[in-house]
Amino acid sequence: MSVIPPLAGLCTYTEATRTDGSVDDAVQLLRRLARIERRALLVMAAHLNAVPEWEVKCALALHLWQDAEHCSWLRERVAELRKPPHYLDRPDDPSLEAFFEELLRSRSTRELLTGVYRVLKPNLLEAIEAYRPRGNPLADQPTFRLLRFLQLEEREQVEWGDQALAALGGADPEWERHLAAYLRAAGGTGGAGDRSGELPAPRAREPLELVRSPQRDERFTRLWNSRGRLPGFDASPDEVNWRMLYVRLTEMHVVELLALTLYEWPEA
Questions:
Q1: Are 70 and 147 in contact (CB under 8 A)?
Q2: pLDDT digits (tens, 9 = 90+) for 161-178
Q3: DSSP 205
Q4: Which residue would you say has higher pLDDT here, 40 or 86?
């Protein structure tokens, strides 16, 4: 005989009595995930000028916006759990910060995509999945719901990254090992993993030089040696349309300018 699912289908009564995790555990994980999402979006923003591939620029713009949304949601959930002090803007794991300083110094599109979509994001998904058996699906339902949204979009990001890397000749194995070692030294994105192992020489010793001139691949050529002029009120419809097409061809400049501004003034 069929029965109506209990507890609105969230879980069974047995699962609702789970006591493996605590509010402190949830706050610690969510605060760490918020920090990771924030650092990840700033890395992508810092590199949006440098990557020449139009398709990669489009994806980075989308993914850094999604990560900004994730960070905001996570911060709100931490506040809801009422376990101050929150320390949402204070880096509390030097090893995790060291990983992001290495990722920030990716030197090519392949290296950047390898770091974000082969090292960071898959490990982030593992950390989220590892929390589910420990948390209480009834008492902590808002967290479970939030993490499902994160998993959905992060998986889509990883799938795109895998396809993009395949088109670029595959991930960079040396850079993947380099970054994986630094992430492992931080205990993974969840922070609870084994932190043993030797670290390769850090690139973070080098000064960070951001690319400020937007890059384009060989498919793009400059059609007009001009920034374009706004047609006068007496301009013909054709001239107005050409102006609009010109703006559309260079529209990525707005994203590139704002991305670099976001990286350099994250608190603005």
A1: no
A2: 999 999 999 999 999 999
A3: G
A4: 40
Residue 156 confidence class, pLDDT cut points 50, 70, 90: very high
Residue 228 has pLDDT above 60, yes or no: no
Handedness of CA 13, 14, 19, 23 (dihedral sign): negative
Classify 97 as helix, strand or coil: helix
Q: Which of 90, 64, 66, 65 is closest to 78 using CA atoms?
A: 90
Cα–Cα distance measured from residue 62 to residue 56, given in angstroms and rounded to the nearest whole number: 10
Q: Are the CB atoms for 163 and 87 separated by under 8 Å?
A: no
Asked whether 74 and 37 are in contact (CB, 8 A), the reply is yes
pLDDT per position as a tens digit, 62-88: 999 999 999 999 999 999 998 777 788
Write down all domains in the chain, each with its CATH number in brackets.
Answer: 20-214 (1.20.1260)
Distance separating alpha carbons of residues 128 and 35, to the nearest angstrom: 14
How many residues belong to the chain? 268
The tokens describing 180, both together, are 């994986």
